[in-house]
Design a protein that fits this description.
CATH superfamily: Chorismate synthase AroC
Shape: globular
Bound molecules: ligand EPS
Helix content: 25-40%
Strand order of the largest sheet: 1-2-3-7-4
């Protein structure tokens, strides 16, 4: 009822706010015996952490996870796995002055309409800060994926009007997303380096203008076997869409050819089946010549890479003054202090990868539970 849980067999439940004591996730359904360390969690949590570069929020959080239960001698026990991340650098005075004003683009007004009472500090429960622990859960999900040879890699494919040219999404590596050829960090997480430089220039420019900019991310899951998903309400594409739309600031999700299908004829759109060599990865010996279907047909995976895109809105919090109203509907103006990302995309990547991995882990466990090894 309260919408704090997601998934069926691999099920996460989160609690926490941006300026409260911290955020916590309870993960149920984790298979026992999976090796897990705080260092493993930090690999992705450090990619999401605020303060990681000059083009993200300068709030300073160490985001050190504490594993509270479901873990013994460096392995998961199979009981509920709880992970806590404390908030360390809240600056709530930034928000006390604007507590009665509705920030444009934020959830303040709709949240008040829903609950009538709101933690106004930062984004409260609607904050991207809550995604700290989702990313931790995503690390556990990625370990389940690794056990059957699947991986999830995301990257920034658009910032404003700068588009990346990526010829083969499934060939992009984590290394290309995270690092430049000279080993320096790829702070915008775009593997097309010419586009990456232009994206950084644009983000710097909007930041100087006290503004923000939107963009899009592409997330690719490869090595996922054919057969995951359900044919009706729990189509894997439906669960992936819910997973991505549950992240803050997502305004659109598409997969494969996406909205491009609207102008196509069936004969252009259909991906044609062809035989291939039978391998452990492709036991059916069947593939398609192209992947406009984005790795899912009828809500069930085909064994082709799952390719998804999410459009992410420009950060709503602006220090630039904007028109708004108070709780009593009095016209006023607002300028949001706090420390905000001029573009959400670089830190969105690990969040989106985590949610995609969580959905695939859940559907893999569901498939195995019903069909066993057949
Ligand atoms: C957030 C506001 C900013 C962001 C924060 C989410 O923080 P504050 O204004 O409290 O300094 O930096 O994001 C994070 C700290 C994070 O870890 O993602 C908000 O209003 O939701």
């Amino acid at each position: 009822m309260a919408g704090n849980s997601f998934g069926q067999l691999f099920r996460i439940t989160t609690a926490g706010e941006s300026h409260g004591p911290g955020n916590v996730v309870i993960i149920d359904g984790v298979p026992p015996g999976i090796p897990l360390s705080v260092e493993d969690l930090l690999i992705d949590m450090d990619r999401r952490r605020p303060g990681q570069s000059r083009i993200v929020t300068q709030r300073k959080e160490s985001d050190t996870p504490e594993i509270l239960s479901g873990w013994f001698e460096g392995k998961t026990t199979g009981t509920s796995l709880a992970i806590l991340v404390r908030n360390e650098d809240q600056r709530s005075r930034d928000y006390s002055k604007i507590k009665d004003k509705y920030r444009p683009g934020h959830a303040d007004f709709s949240f008040d309409a829903r609950y009538g009472f709101r933690d106004y500090r930062g984004g409260g429960r609607s904050s991207a800060r809550e995604t700290t622990v989702r990313v931790a859960a995503g690390v556990v999900a990625k370990k389940i994926l690794e056990s059957f040879g699947a991986r999830v890699v995301g990257y920034v494919c658009q910032v404003g009007d700068v588009h990346a040219q990526i010829s083969d999404p499934a060939a992009v590596t984590l290394e290309q997303v995270e690092n430049l050829p000279d080993g320096e960090p790829n702070i915008v997480r775009c593997p097309d380096l010419d586009a990456a430089a232009k994206m950084i220039e644009l983000i710097d420019a909007v930041r100087k203008e006290q503004d923000s900019i939107g963009g899009a991310a592409e997330i690719v899951a490869s090595g996922v076997p054919a057969g995951l998903g359900e044919p009706v309400f729990d189509k894997i594409k439906a669960d992936l869409a819910k997973a991505l739309f549950s992240l803050p600031a997502v305004l659109g999700v598409e997969y494969g050819i996406g909205f491009g299908c609207a102008t196509m004829r069936g004969s252009e759109h259909n991906d044609l089946f062809v035989p291939v060599e039978v391998t452990p990865e492709n036991p059916h010996g069947i593939t398609t010549e192209s992947n406009r279907h984005g790795g899912m047909l009828g809500g069930i995976t085909t064994g082709l890479p799952i390719v998804l895109r999410a459009a992410v809105k420009p950060t709503s919090s602006l220090s630039k003054e904007q028109k708004t109203v108070t709780r009593d509907a009095e016209p006023t103006t607002i300028s949001t202090k706090g420390r905000h990302d001029p573009c959400l995309l670089p830190r969105f990547i690990p969040m989106a990868e985590a949610m995609v991995a969580i959905v695939i882990a859940d559907h893999w466990l569901r498939w195995k539970a019903q069909c066993g090894e057949n």
